[in-house]
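Action item from last meeting closed. Structure (340 res):
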């Protein structure tokens, strides 16, 4: 047989085999919902663009509408306000950081976690390059700008503990917000700062000296959560399930289409350039799930909150009671690794 014919047949067989394997393993698409559109409102801190990636992509690509949902996004200034909006019945769902969910749950016990929608290592401790600080041990006697009573304060505590540095060996410069933190660093009121990577991006825009990164939270990732009240979960379980289904479809798209995803986000937020996404993107894992690590991390956070008297509670609650498993069990059961 002609050598070219043999090679052609071999190529065809390989292509056919690869096609079959791809077809068998491709993500299953959810059937479109045939009923009328139902309105859903979710509160999200859009200032943290990438935290909201799955929801924004699901809305832009029509995944919510395919699931019979007319989703409105209510922009809130931070992930503290979102849970409050849920508690007060102003929205159906909200995005919340694990730390803020814990703080709010001490007062409002009728709210549950539906799923993690982003796991991230986007917290950092950094120093002005002109400070001469190049390693953690150099910070003794220096000033750290920090927003008190936030997850960043917990993060600084971890940083100091892991590096054998007493809190008495540094001076804390309390600030009230991200912009004030940036001002404290630019004005040289502090040499060191604890911030998110998005805040680091803002700092780099106004402070040309640059920063030396000393630490990040790769050993204890943070979780961005989807939350809802017991009342919503009881009255609208099918809506919650379809909302998660749309997020899972968005997850598949984001995983396979990094730059198309970023293009969609840049269209919605033109103030964020490619340099922003190059900085923050590697710090996020855009997946819908309920992981065992979430429970462990929430218990660590709660222990620190209690020790620092940020709550009147004295015992760590059973956080299994604060998680709604039903929707994810129906949509993506393999994404649940929490031991029950």
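Sequence:
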């Amino acid at each position: 047989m002609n050598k070219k014919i043999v090679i052609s047949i071999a190529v065809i067989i390989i292509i056919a085999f690869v096609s079959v394997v791809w077809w068998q393993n491709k993500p299953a698409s959810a059937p479109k919902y045939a009923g009328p559109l139902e309105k859903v409102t979710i509160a999200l801190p859009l200032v943290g663009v990438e935290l909201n990636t799955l929801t924004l992509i699901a809305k832009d690509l029509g995944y919510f509408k395919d699931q019979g949902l007319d989703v409105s996004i209510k922009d809130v200034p931070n992930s503290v306000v979102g849970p409050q909006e849920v508690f007060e019945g102003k929205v159906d769902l909200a995005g919340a950081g694990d730390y803020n969910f814990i703080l709010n749950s001490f007062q409002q016990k009728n709210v549950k976690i539906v799923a993690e929608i982003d796991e991230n290592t986007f917290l950092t401790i950094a120093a002005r390059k002109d400070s001469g600080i190049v390693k953690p041990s150099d910070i003794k006697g220096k000033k750290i700008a920090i927003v008190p009573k936030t997850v960043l304060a917990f993060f600084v505590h971890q940083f100091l503990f892991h590096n054998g540095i007493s809190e008495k060996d540094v001076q804390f410069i309390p600030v009230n917000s991200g912009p004030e933190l940036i001002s404290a660093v630019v004005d040289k009121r502090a040499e060191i700062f604890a911030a998110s990577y998005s805040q680091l991006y803002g700092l780099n825009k106004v402070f040309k000296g640059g920063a030396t990164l000393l630490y990040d939270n790769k050993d204890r990732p943070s979780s961005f959560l989807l939350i809802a009240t017991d009342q919503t979960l009881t009255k609208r379980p099918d809506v919650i399930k379809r909302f998660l289904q749309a997020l899972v479809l968005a997850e598949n798209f984001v995983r396979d289409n990094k730059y198309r995803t970023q293009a969609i986000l840049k269209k919605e937020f033109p103030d964020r350039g490619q340099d922003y996404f190059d900085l923050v993107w590697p710090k996020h894992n855009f997946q819908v799930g309920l992981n065992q690590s979430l429970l462990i991390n929430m218990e660590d956070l709660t222990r620190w909150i209690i020790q620092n008297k940020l709550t009147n509670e004295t015992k760590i609650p059973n956080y299994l009671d604060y998680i709604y498993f039903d929707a994810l069990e129906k949509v993506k059961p393999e994404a649940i690794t929490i031991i029950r």
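Note appended to the action item: Confidence is low (pLDDT under 50) at residues 16-28.
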